[in-house]
Amino acid sequence: MSDRLGHDRAEAGARVVDVAESRERPYRGETVFSQKCASCHGAGGAGGGIGPKLIGDPLSLAAAKAQIDNGGSVMPASLVRGGQERDVLAYLATVLAPP
Ligand code: HEC
């Protein structure tokens, strides 16, 4: 009985952490973006002369991920990976338009 309660509490706790985590990702991603992407894509992805404008760009997250992984023209491949890449994609999800 108390085990069950402990288990439920642990699960509820994990969900709270997940929610907090998913809320923070876009903010962390914005910081990563300003450090690694804004030099070409402009502040926040507003367009910067070298890279295309990303705000309002009708691009799927899968296509954005492929671009980040593979690069293209002067954009280097794998500028971000793992958690940083997920953070950047969470940020891009807030600025890209649906494809
Ligand atoms: C050295 C300059 C440069 C940097 C740094 C850079 N990009 Fe790019 N990016 C480009 C260029 C140029 C293109 C267009 C490439 C092409 O046509 O293949 C592009 C294309 C893209 C696209 C595809 C846009 C579309 O509509 O197809 C995405 C998404 C993207 N970049 C995201 C990022 C992210 C996220 C970062 C940081 C991790 C980043 N870029 C860093 C230059 C850059």
Can you walk through the features of this model?
The chain has 99 residues and is an all-alpha fold. It has a single domain (26-95), classed as Cytochrome c-like domain (Cytochrome Bc1 Complex, Chain D, domain 2, Orthogonal Bundle). The protein is 64% helix and 0% strand. The chain has four helices and no strands. Helix 1 crosses helix 4 and helix 3 (61-70) crosses helix 4 (82-95). The longest helix is centred in the N-terminal third of the chain and has 35 residues, at 2-36. The protein starts with a helix and ends with a helix. Bound molecules: heme C (HEC). Residues 36-37, 39-41, 50-52, 54, 57, 59, 64, 67-68, 72-75, 79-80, 88 line the site of heme C (HEC). Heme C binds at residues 36-37, 39-41, 50-52, 54, 57, 59, 64, 67-68, 72-75, 79-80, 88.
Share in β-strands: under 5%
Please state the overall shape, judged from the principal axes of the Cα atoms: elongated
* CATH homologous superfamily placement: Cytochrome c-like domain
In the residues, how many domains can be counted? 1
How many β-strand stretches? 0
Examine the coordinates and then state which fold CATH places here, giving the name of the CATH topology: Cytochrome Bc1 Complex, Chain D, domain 2
Q: What structural category do the secondary elements indicate?
A: mainly alpha
Bound heterogens, unique: heme C
The sequence of SSEs as H and E is HHHH
Helix content: 55-70%
CATH architecture: Orthogonal Bundle
Rg is 17 Å
What is the terminal-to-terminal distance?
50 Å
Mean pLDDT: 93
